[in-house]
Amino acid sequence: MSDRLVELLKCFALRARVFQTGPLCNSTRFDQEAGVGYIHLLQQGQLTVKAPTHPALQFDEPTLFLYMNPTTHQLTPRDSSVEMVCASFEFGAGLNNPIARALPDIVVIRLSDIPALDRALTLLFIEASEHHCGQQAILDRMMEVVIVLVMRDLMDQHRLQFGLLAGLADDRLAKAINAMHAEPERNWSLETLAEKANMSRARFANRFREVVGTTPGAYLSEWRLSVAQSLLRQGKPVQYVADVVGYGSASALSRTFRSQVGQSPREWLKRYHEANG
């Protein structure tokens, strides 16, 4: 199977910042911040996690938990042995990220259930326990690797039943989704996408809506907007962006922006820069 994450990682810049390594001695609150997610790795100890979006959770063994979307939450150690590595991250902050929209409020995986992470986590924990020059940069990059590996695990182990990653975990749907990701400028018809998935038109349409949560046509429109926003953020001209995502003219792209975002591309870009520095 072709790489199911390559186009997503091209479109949405993933940047992590590790801010906690070692003992967690006191209850710590993390406030909701626009465009910022959190990933926490409990190495040992007993921990309580509270957030308004889910019931209180009790962890008594090494566990990874991740908030893809901005969420206020609180971590409270229940004994003195709690050791953690925590990071904030941005994954295309301010952009129309289909992964962020599709993931549940919190993703929880016991470390014993994700052996594919063993080597990465071993290196991360060793680096976190030592003090060398360049440590912050190394920890940040390693945490970005961990986040990508978690997304891979969510697909490979079919941990999600709904949303984009669930669609990419379906071998047949993934062929159609990958095709849209790779060629957003193409005028994809339902028939052509169904052929990519080796399914009948009706069966493909029903399966896509059931798993991804939207129609193929609506998803293509959303993906085009995501790519357009990413290119505009990189400083590409509006006409160039319109050609790349299949709208043909700057005016057609502007109409799409106004209908879906409520702003023109230039207005959106100005507000994006104001909000994200």
TrEMBL record:
Molecular function GO terms recorded: DNA-binding transcription factor activity; sequence-specific DNA binding
Pfam families per UniProt: Cupin_6, HTH_18
Record-linked Gene3D superfamilies: Homeodomain-like
InterPro entries membership: AraC_lig, AraC_XylS_family_regulators, Homeodomain-like_sf, HTH_AraC, HTH_AraC-typ_CS
Signal peptide: none
Domain of life of the source: Bacteria
Domain HTH araC/xylS-type: residue ranges: 174-271
UniProt keyword list: DNA-binding, Transcription, Transcription regulation
PANTHER family, per the entry: ARAC FAMILY TRANSCRIPTIONAL REGULATOR (PTHR46796:SF7), HTH-TYPE TRANSCRIPTIONAL ACTIVATOR RHAS-RELATED (PTHR46796)
Official protein name in the record: Helix-turn-helix domain-containing protein
Species of origin: Sedimenticola thiotaurini
Taxonomic path: Bacteria, Pseudomonadati, Pseudomonadota, Gammaproteobacteria, Chromatiales
